Fold:
Amino acid sequence: MLENAKDLAKTLAHKSKNRLLPFRQDSELTADDVKIARDYIAAYWPKLERYHPKDDESLLGVPKPYLVPSYTEEAGFDYNELYYWDSFFMVQGMFDQKHKDLVMGILEDLLFLFERFRVIPNASRTYLMGRSQPPFLTTFIFQVYQAYDPGEEWLARAIEIAKEEYSIVWMGIKKPNERLVHNGLSRYYDINYLHDLAEAESGWDMTPRFGRKALNYLPADLNALLYKYEMDFARAARIYGDSRDAVRWEQAADARKRSMNSLMWDKVRGLYYDYNYKKERRGNVSSLAGFYPMWAGMVTEQQAKQLVRALKRFENKGGLATTDALPLGQQLTPGALPTQWAYPNGWAPLQYIVIQALERYGYHEDARRVAMKWLKTNLSWFNQNGVFLEKYHVVSPEKPPVKGVYPSQTGFGWTNAVFERLCHDYIDAPSKA
Structure:
C-alpha cells in the first residue's frame, strides 16, 4: 500500500512537471483545476507517516503513527520527528473517517509526550526538549471531539492534560518554564534562556518581530492562544454541567483580554502588536500574529472591522505576507540572520488562521478572496514544478521564497493540508466555509 502510494505521488508529480495545467487567474478555481494537485496530496501523506513506538538514540518513542513536516529522498536535511504545531496544521485537511485513526493517534502522541515529560516539546527529540511550540492543544482536542465524538470521558481526560500543560508550561513562573512574566501575560521561552531559542518556540524562526530579543516580548499570538485555552476550559466545564468552573475560566480569559487590549492593541493602526515588557512599549513590526486574537474570538466587532482594514498591509498578489513591507535595513535581524517569517514570504498556517478569523466575524468575501489567492499561488507553483513548498513569495509568486536559517523544504505537510482544507471549504462547498 505504501509503495503504491509513493509510486502514485511520483507519477502525479511527473505529470504536473510536464503538463502545464492553465487556469484563469481572474476567475474562481474549479474542482477540475485542483484535481491533480489534490490527488498528489492524498498520495503524498504516506511519505510523511512515521511510527516509532520506542526511544531510538535522540528520537523519542510515541505510541501511535504520526506525520513529519517534509520528506525528500535527495535532501541531506530531513525530518523523522513529530512536531507540535506542524501536527495541528497537518491534520486540518484530514477530519474525515478515512484518516480518523491517524488524526486521533497524532493527538494521543502529543498527550503522551506531555504526560511523560510535563511538556509537549518543540519536537520528539531529546535535544528539542528545552522549549515547546505554539499551543494549539485545546483546539485540536475540540476538533477531534466534534469530528469523531469519542465521548465525554475521552474529552475530560484530554482537557485535564491540557489544563496541566497550561498551568505547568505556559503559566510557569520559574525554570524550566519561566513564561508568565508580566501583567498576567506569557512569553515564548527556552530552558537555556537564549533569545534565539525562545524565538524558535514561537515557530517563527526567524522573524523581525522580536529583534532577536524574544525573551523580552509578550507575543500577541501566544496570549491569544492562551485566551482560547481558557475559553475552551470554560466550554468543557459547561459540557460537564460545572457552571462555577466555567465562570472561573471565563473570568481568567476576560482578564487576559483586558491586559492584551491595554498593552497590545493599537487603536490608530488597528492591529495587535507584541509588547516589549522590558522597555514597556509595543513592538513596531506589523505581523499576522496580530490576527490571532480575532481567530480566538476575543475582539469586538469594531476591532474586527479595524483588523479587516489592516489586511491591506499584508495582502499581495499571492496571498498574505507574514509582516508588512519592512525597510531594507530591517529585512535581516540584527546579526544578519535571514528572516524567512517576514515579508515577502507567506506561510500556510498564517493564511489559515487569518481566513478562519475573517469567517468567524462574518467577513466571508474577504476570507474567500484570501483563500483563492493562496490556492492559486500554491497551484501555479505545483503545475510548473510538481511540488508544494514550505512557504511562498506572495509578492511575486513566480519567484522562489526568501530562504531562512535552514534549507527551504518541499513537500510540504502543512501546505498540503491547508491547500486541501481550503479546497474543501471554498471549492467543494463554495457557499459557506
Notes: Residues 84 and 404 are 20 Å apart (CA to CA).
